[in-house]
Amino acid sequence: MRTIIECVPNVSEGRDRNSIDAMAAAVREAPGARLLDVSSDSAHHRSVLTFVGDAAAVRAGVLALFRAALPRIDLRTHRGEHPRMGAVDVVPFIPVRGVTVEECVALSKEIGAAIASEFGVPVFLYEDSASAEHRRNLADVRKGQFEGFAEKMKDARWAPDFGPAAPHPSAGVVAVGARPFLIAYNINLGTRDLAIADRIAKAIRHISGGFRYVKAMGVELADRGLVQVSINMTNFRKTPLHRVFDCVRAEAERHGVPVVGSEIVGLSPADALYAAAEHYLRLEGFSAEQVLETKLLGE
Amino acid sequence: MRTIIECVPNVSEGRDRNSIDAMAAAVREAPGARLLDVSSDSAHHRSVLTFVGDAAAVRAGVLALFRAALPRIDLRTHRGEHPRMGAVDVVPFIPVRGVTVEECVALSKEIGAAIASEFGVPVFLYEDSASAEHRRNLADVRKGQFEGFAEKMKDARWAPDFGPAAPHPSAGVVAVGARPFLIAYNINLGTRDLAIADRIAKAIRHISGGFRYVKAMGVELADRGLVQVSINMTNFRKTPLHRVFDCVRAEAERHGVPVVGSEIVGLSPADALYAAAEHYLRLEGFSAEQVLETKLLGE
């Protein structure tokens, strides 16, 4: 698999095991697609499927998912805690290896057009695929939810990128788009003083003057007697883990506080770790193709 | 592929393209084996095949290689610069992922017994598989070469571990064994003074008091106006790259010399790089299963 694209569709079904299994099976059986995880939340009445593949596999997986989801999910009777606008609510495409965000943007448009044409579901491009700045943020796109979309779409600013001018009766609309891989990364500080974690979070996050691709906040870890700078790395290629780690360490030092550790929550692409090794070992001419396992995946 | 074992057989044929291709094809076609590289040296009259797989695949690949090599290589007429004792000269098994050296030792014995029984070639276990300390080092095992083995094997200290008491008429004998992955790792110093690289090499290498799994020497990089500590990391799990890098940096500092970079030559297992990232980022609870590509390989 020379190209690895991660696709993480969210569907509005988190309770009926048969329906969830059928949707998972549809993705699993799509040629070339590899389903890595299915997480369902009953209160949210929502499931998140994680699968990977090359462009063709991801396309096949998404269309198979729609085919399985549409007869099984009717938003007219769907009630859950999580906001939603579609039976398949949102479909992000995330470059992992051998593919750029730009290529994922192109893929999202191609798949978006196919969804509209095969299923008659209006498609809104969001994130890096968005056709206008006000349509970039998912929360803005989803505002009004399923029940409000017939009205919302009358506004020309909310015409769909593909598909009919009104929501699908039972399946609503869907947001489709490309975005970088998000790494959840936390750095733990050897103090109980939450104000220090808050100050450091403020120092590193984009919104208050920090790194372009960092969201951060201070969190108490009461059971460990520590505080944490809890971080979302929204583009680890442009703002790498090691740069944020070193900055947090320097800021903590100024408060006389040690960094006791850090953690990656959930999955990370190998490149994020290779980049840290490359930086600290001052590696020259390093290529991921030198890593036996990465080479194996690419063959 | 949950288990990745690397196997790097050396064969005594480096000139005849048809024979080399036939041996490569035999390995490539073995069920589950993935051939990564074939390097031939005409002066040495020797080829090195690199392939990976799980235990069954590696076993199939080695036996297929013997089947292809034995009719094609006759050591009675073989002349090359590289010392050799067998048509298939040496077969090392190297754990990469999901398998221990101990398991590779067991596998080497199983495959060694199969080689002796199917092909009548005497097998000498070496490295971590050696049945006695004096048989651990490959150069000691190979001493006397093909021409000297009939005589050498009369000594009880050089009875084979498996197979007949005399060498195969045309294929000689073979060394089979497990060893850790060897990483070629160089660290470049911002000075032209070779004596400093030599002193640092001496400080870090096992033989003169340094790290248990480090071989090192000083080398001049005349074209770059630098010197290099050239290192063989013979067990990166027990003596990791980052520890050696930090030690070299500290020693260089004492001479007022900067470390300008380092390089990994050839392949490395992902774990060597993950370990460096884990160390410098002070990662807590990190698992290679969190790395998307590694998880994919393991599925």
The overall average pLDDT of chain A, rounded, is 96
Enumerate how many helices of chain A there are, as a single number: 9
The level of helicity of chain A is 25-40%
Which sequence of SSEs, written as H and E, runs from N to C of chain A? EEHEEHEHEHHEEHEEHEHH
- The CATH homologous superfamily of the largest domain in chain A is named Formiminotransferase, N-terminal subdomain
C-alpha geometry of chain A: globular
Q: Termini separation of chain A (Å)?
A: 7 Å
Largest interface: A-B, 44 and 44 residues
Account of the protein in words:
The structure is a homodimer of 299-residue chains. Chain A has 299 residues and is of the alpha+beta class. The first copy, chain A, folds into two domains: 175 residues, Formiminotransferase-cyclodeaminase, Chain B, domain 1 (2-Layer Sandwich), CATH 3.30.990.10; 116 residues, Alpha-Beta Plaits (2-Layer Sandwich). Helix content of chain A is 34%, strand content 23%. In chain A, the strands form two sheets. In chain A, strands 1, 2, 3, 4, 5, 6 and 7 form a seven-stranded mixed sheet that branches. A four-stranded antiparallel sheet of chain A has the order 9-10-8-11, covered by helices on one side. In chain A, helix 6 packs across helix 7. The first copy, chain A, is globular, with a radius of gyration of 21 Å.
